[in-house]
Write a structure and sequence with these properties.
It is built from seven helices and eleven strands. It is globular. By secondary structure, it is of the alpha+beta class. Helix 2 packs parallel to helix 6. It has one domain. This is DUF2971 domain-containing protein.
């Protein structure tokens, strides 16, 4: 029995934990240690506007240690927006409860249809022990590997499966009419409207304020 696009949409609408979109979250291009959470979010909006002007997401390289192989990748989360804001709030709570102010991402980003991202080479990552995954994947597909270790007893668990990550190799060039903007709260929404070109805003597929999903 064939499974059509209509069937696919119907399945998603009947499940709260899956979505037809993937979301790329960003952060400020430059950070200082004494920046407040509000400043960080507004700086992230500034970076988002630059991304929209360029119509391009550049891939992260392997220097961070999270990317396997030689190709840079653009990362997305395959989670509904109510799951995205939960991930963002967890990262924020973790950052504010420690002296380590490293920022992985903010509640600022872009969402796209899975079909659109798939067309440009986007695929779900492969969660596995990196050493094991390299045994069955050709080197040109190492960019899909995300290290995953669940062993007991084991003092160092590595588990990023809550992000349900997708990746696009190298870069992702997009069109505005396929682009949905994600903002953290009303302050970031107001800042975005004040500073982003109206010509760009008018072409967007939509805008969502994540904090409103927690009300």
């Amino acid at each position: 029995m064939s499974f059509t696009f209509t069937d696919w949409k119907h399945r998603i609408r009947n499940r709260a934990d899956i979505t037809g979109m993937v979301t790329h979250l960003t952060k400020p291009s430059e950070l200082t240690f004494n920046m407040s959470d509000e400043e960080i979010n507004l700086k992230a909006v500034g970076n988002l506007i630059k991304i929209l002007e360029d119509k391009r997401l550049n891939g992260s390289d392997t220097s961070s240690g999270f990317i396997v192989g030689k190709r840079p990748v653009v990362c997305f989360q395959d989670a509904p927006l109510h799951g995205i804001i939960q991930n963002v709030e967890y990262e924020l709570e973790k950052r504010n409860s420690t002296q380590i102010k490293k920022i992985r991402y903010c509640g600022i980003g872009l969402s796209f249809s899975k079909f659109y991202v798939y067309t440009y080479g986007g695929r779900p990552v492969i969660y596995d022990n990196t050493i094991e995954a390299k045994k069955y994947l050709p080197e040109e597909h190492y960019w899909r590997i995300v290290n995953f270790i669940l062993e007991t007893p084991n003092p160092k668990i590595i588990d990023w499966t809550h992000e349900r990550e997708w990746r696009v190799p190298d870069e992702f060039i997009f069109k505005y009419n396929y682009t949905h903007v994600v903002l953290y709260d009303k302050a970031t929404y107001d800042y975005f409207l004040e500073n982003c070109s109206k010509e760009i805003i008018n072409k967007l597929h939509g805008i969502t304020i994540l904090k409103s999903l927690l009300m």
